[in-house]
Amino acid sequence: MSSMTDETQTNEALEQWKAEMQAEHEAAIENPDPDEDHRIEGVAQVSYRVSFTYDEESDELQRAETEQVEELADPELLSCSCGVRGMTRAEARTHVVAARNE
């Protein structure tokens, strides 16, 4: 029975920690530091198909061709140059508007 109690306490502690982290995240989004610069940014990747040829002389594979197989898409999560990370597009908009109103 002790194991079940330990697991329940662990789960409760984890849920409490998650709630605290979410509250901190929301506060950072809604109350940007007025002394920081705020520039929203994200990282996006485009996939390429890459083909190689084998060079017998060097015993190496060498890139022969590349073909872009998808278009560039906006990232799902965005960050601000002030350090707030993991924002949705709506959260990033809220953050920038709040920063401009400071």
Question: What would the keywords be for this entry?
Answer:
about 100 residues; alpha+beta; two-stranded antiparallel ribbon
Characterization of this structure:
The chain is α+β, with helices and mostly antiparallel strands. It has one domain. Helix content is 40%, strand content 21%. It contains two helices and four strands. The strands form two sheets. Strands 1-4 form a two-stranded antiparallel sheet. It has a two-stranded antiparallel sheet with strand order 2-3. α1 crosses α2. The radius of gyration is 23 Å and the shape is flat. 10% of the residues are buried. The mean pLDDT is 93.
Instruction: Quickly give the structural class.
Output: alpha+beta
Give the helix level as a range of percent.
Answer: 40-55%
Question: Could you tell me the radius of gyration in angstroms?
Answer: 23 Å
Could you spell the SSE succession in H and E letters?
HEEEEH
The largest β sheet comes out as: 2 strands, antiparallel
Distance between the termini: 53 Å
